[in-house]
Design goal:
19% of the residues lie in helices and 39% in strands. With 191 residues, the protein is α/β, with parallel strands linked by helices. It has a seven-stranded mixed sheet. Strands 1, 2, 8 and 9 form a four-stranded mixed sheet that branches. It is globular. 36% of the residues are buried.
Length: 191
């Protein structure tokens, strides 16, 4: 990768502990590092459109190649859905479909928790690749996982307000949020 094209976020620290110990969890875009699957193991059904991303996962989740914009699960199948820096890889139209599908497959009262970041709008500068630098400390794991999630920037960018509005439009009720240095953690309930 040509480093001259890369705009890096500051390193963001995330600490995750088991908040949903007895629930069935759907992890959207759960390939690659498989952060949620590493934390919850067999409670997780990790879906990703890329088989190779799922094959990279070193966790005990059930891994399924599936498009989150057209999930093949029955309605009301999951207690919790997560998205760990996955929405940033989707177009706005795909994000809307994924959030709608997430609403559909969650049980009433179910929680959709996501982690992502604000991506600046691309306005023709040399730097057209945005990289989210994240260090994740998992409960019970002594060494943090440090990763960079990179995407091509577009003219729309991405922000917390737009993601929240998409979720509300799909029927979710926001109930918790954290925001730090452009990174956000949002929680929604299916009402």
């Amino acid at each position: 990768m040509n480093e001259e094209r890369v705009l890096n976020s500051d390193l963001h620290q995330v600490e995750l502990s088991k908040e949903y110990p007895i629930h069935k969890i759907l992890d959207i875009g759960g390939g690659g590092e498989g952060i949620i699957g590493r934390l919850y193991g067999g409670q997780v059904v990790a879906i990703d459109t890329r088989k190779n991303e799922l094959e990279e996962c070193e966790n005990d989740s059930l891994k399924i190649v599936m498009d989150a914009a057209d999930m093949q699960f029955l309605d009301d199948s999951f207690d919790v859905a997560t998205s760990f820096y996955s929405l940033m890889y989707m177009t706005k139209a795909t994000q809307e479909k994924v959030i709608f599908e997430t609403y559909r497959v969650l049980k009433p009262g179910g929680v959709f928790e996501l982690w992502d970041l604000e991506i600046p709008r691309y306005e023709g500068a040399l730097k057209d690749i945005f990289v989210a630098n994240v260090s994740v400390k998992l409960e019970g794991v002594p060494v943090p996982i440090t990763v960079g999630y990179g995407v091509l920037m577009d003219q729309l960018g991405q922000n917390e307000n737009a993601i929240t509005q998409l979720a509300i439009n799909c029927g979710f009720k926001p109930f918790d949020r954290e925001f730090e240095s452009g990174h956000f953690n949002l929680k929604f309930e299916k009402v």
